[in-house]
Amino acid sequence: MPNRLQYEKSPYLLQHAENPVDWRPWGADAFEEARRADKPVLLSIGYSTCHWCHVMAHESFEDEAVAEAVNGAFLPIKVDREERPDVDAVYMAACIAQTGSGGWPLTVLLTPEQKPFWAGTYLPRRQLLSLLDQAARLWREDRGTLLAAGDALTEFLRREEAARPGVPKRELVESGAALFRRMFDRQWGGFGQAPKFPAAHNLLFLLCYAGRTGDVGAREMAESTLEHMYRGGLFDHVGGGFSRYSTDRRWLVPHFEKMLYDNALLAMAYLEAYQQSGRPYYRTVVRRTLDYVLAELTDPQGGFCCGQDADSEGVEGKYYVFTPEELVRHLGPEAELFCRRFGVTGRGNFEGKSIPNLIDTPDWETEPEDLRALLARVRSYRQGRTRLHRDDKVLTAWNGLMIAALARAGLVLEEPRYLEAAQRAAAFIRRELTGADGGLLARWREGEAAHLGKLEDYAFYAWGLLELYGATLRIECFEEAERTARRLLEDFFDEAGGGFCPYAKQGEQLITRTKETYDGAMPSGNAAAALVLSRLARLTGETRWRTAAELQFRYLAGAAQDNPAGHSFTLLALLEELWPTAELVCTSREIPAELVAFLGKRSRPGLTVLVKTPENGARLAVLAPFTAEYPCPAAGARYYLCREGACAPPAERLEDVRV
Fold it and tell me: Model's pTM, two decimal places?
């Protein structure tokens, strides 16, 4: 019989609506019910494309014996971590504090006051039943022990909220680069051993660090990793886009789920590598990644969906693997070219079948003329053979990252369709994910928006809007970025000690408001907020943004001191804050095409650009008051460049501006 999750919109919660476990969605009503029933809470957190979440669901939550144990002694609550990253962050911190590691599915036992007294991840059926039995017995016979454990862990998490401020210095950035050198896998790229995660923000940092300092080693680490990730099975050579991580050191066998955020951040990393090196294959990877997103993860109304599952028909990776025999049946003689190039063999490389890859292909960087049509045929065959589940909810935070990637790609690759997709997504967020009070909402699905926006929603969306302004120079993007960042400061910022809380002051208050600074699969929301503040300070010249940026960087410098490599996006933001910057103001009758081409030609770190025209001058002066004094010429354009507090004479030709 369907349980209370049947009325939810989350694909993850709906996957559990038929479980015999009587799940409730997270909410005050559920905890009040636990208090009245005098039961502890079983909290299970996951997401719809999580393979091990599916395994635990099939093994345990669909099992009648498990359901009887849970429903009898516990109040069970399900949470979609992608809808409620704030809840996930609190209890993931508890899991890491107790076990030293984390992951999903996340399994936590709580008091009705939301205090965790046990936390772990995936549990086989037998272990879960044993845990439930012991916890139920202790709740009846020795509840004081569990309550004391919950109090102690909660107090520990609250103490962890306090971070000592630091001094932002170049040495912190340099020490982060040095840590990456020590962890780097010189044979296969990436950092550490298997499993290997793309962590595109690490690669973006190394590339930008190399661009700022000339550090050849940093560039080589990033480029080697980008090459091996693309050549392996982590990249989908048939359909484009990257899987979430590799289970092996060579990047051959991925965990096959594809996530929107990975593909947004990886597109930006390959794009930065292309701008620095000019190698054509980087451009190809960016296009094939973004084209995958436009084809597979785009809602008809313009927003971007979360991702695709690793499983099809209950089998992990089935959608992606081939045998030579089936390809011969479908392609005929042309199958030989595909199999030879992509390493498809009778022996296989994954459970008797083959994941297409370029690891052993000598001419991997060049593409035969007839390959594109052949790939289209294989893609069509694969889509007809089996399908993947798509998590079709639209998250504001992840859409902000994709807007940033598409905006930058549209500018650099001169692809109007990418800019159009970014603008459509921003319009979608304004229309569907903005509340009546102007605040952001976190999730949209099937016409329903829900959950107050969190730190990442505001920070990533503001970043995306700033990238969109940088690509289009349209005043509307700048205005919306400033409004979003203003709301971020008002609702989330700790003006006394620095740092942004994970949820707004007027939002639901959890047991802690831990200000996360570590990067995970995505950059830290605090680091992204620092980048936004830094750019707004330079774009507007306003004291408000400069004061907030300085306080935020002091907070982050203290938090990152012990592990700078775990704060790579903070280090990336510090590259813009501590290294030389330049501000360019262009006044013109219209946005000059030569300026747009100039900005896309190569990476220009630390440069901010404003364009003033007769049409936008008054609006621009509200955001950046110093521009009010810049006259618009009767014809042509005039360029004003300031660098490190000193301004050069105005120039009438862009080629005379030395940036």
Answer: 0.92
